Structure prediction request, 496 residues.
Amino acid sequence: MEFIPATGRDAARLADQVAALHPETHDRQQGPLIEIEVCYDGPDLDRLATLLGWSRDAVITAHTGQLWTAAFGGFAPGFTYCVAHRDLDVPRRRTPRTAVPAGSVGLAGAFSAVYPRTSPGGWQLIGRTAAALWDAGRDSPALIAPGTRVRYRAVRDLVQTTTLTRLDHPDPARGLRILTTGPQSLITDLGRPGHADVGVAESGAMDRGAARLANSLVGNPVALPVVENLGGGLRVQAVGDQMVAVTGARVPLSISADARQHTTAAQHTPTAQHCPHCEHAIRLLDGQVLALGVPEAGLRSYLAGRGGVDAPGLFGSAATDLMSGIGPSPLRAGQLLAVSTTRWASSPQPGTRPRPLPASGATVGIMLGPRDDWFTPGALASLLSQQWRLREDSNRIGLRLDGAPLERSRPGELVSEGTVAGAVQVTTAGTPVILMRDHPVTGGYPVIGVVEAADLDTLAQLPAGSTVRFERSGGDTVGARNHVNSPSTGRLDHDG
Prediction:
């Protein structure tokens, strides 16, 4: 069950009700026992041994010499937090890695877990395994479910498992041929809420307002799949006549007769259009090519086709989740993207205008908590007063910020907790990370505050090097301000 509060008071009332519960205790049957083979050659093993005052072999013995029990799932699909009778107190890394290899075995606090796929992470890595922790094709996708007992066994070499790859469906007779993708192009929609219990984040379009608008302009229901393009460079060719719309970042658009022509907006040809992305749909005749240039403002563009992009769904959504690996693979050159022939009762909505795009920075509302008490008063003041810079390694999982470090008021490790899009985690090094659409569903870095949901679309359009300021807001007022620092024309708030 998922709880979506309308106001901060709703969340406070629910918290009081949960705190007043007194569940009965029952004897539980032991869960199944599985064995995980681990090659103990992790990059943090020796340093961790030094931190604990143990030998390398002692760390391995502590990990293999006891039975672990899966307590709960989280972070990512197949990532399960396991606890043991012998308590460990393992500090997380000061700054999380941007990419932890799939199969890495890690420790943090009193927990042990295996990373199911390559993802960011701040745990101490002591080894690796070839076990397939998550397979959506299995009856039970997660290898380790809550209640499962786990024993780790040390091995010198790993036996690689074979993974069956599902073949693509045959190409449809009509759609959009992908000629170039730019830095990144993927299929997305409004996400898959309600599956955090198995480690699946909501995901979906980074700028949801722009995705909704793209569908609206071509007469689609707003939740249908669209293409999200990062940084321009997307070129698509119509296979059969198509009606499309482009929203989001302000990009120059051009239409050429076929894939061999390279008409650009700068040439001012009759088929070149300078960013009509907010007012009307575009008719593409069979064989014509639509090209998106480099954004002049914003970062992400959304391409919708009338009838909707036809893509397979999982957990009720066709969105590509880069954290979990759920959803279609990022688009590739040569791929034929099917566009449904379905026609909806709604009609394209001309004259609709998007919200203004940030130029060099934005101010976003933040509600402090739930772990603001982990930081000094000076740190809270610094969070709200300084201008943070958006780092190059930011992505759909999280926006990493540079600035004066925030000082904690207490030592130790936080027990991993649930997270939401917009949560502002603070690493041990004191730097904030704003969790975005593909965020892990749990995390162990304290959350100093949560960005207002209405401001996530603005953050999605900030390129690296932009500035971010936090402005404290009350839990009962969301999205009532213009959050953009630079002057801009009127923009509709599509989250309202």
User: Anything to note?
Assistant: The radius of gyration is 24 Å. The first helix runs from residue 8 to 19. Residues 363 and 469 are 5 Å apart (CA to CA).
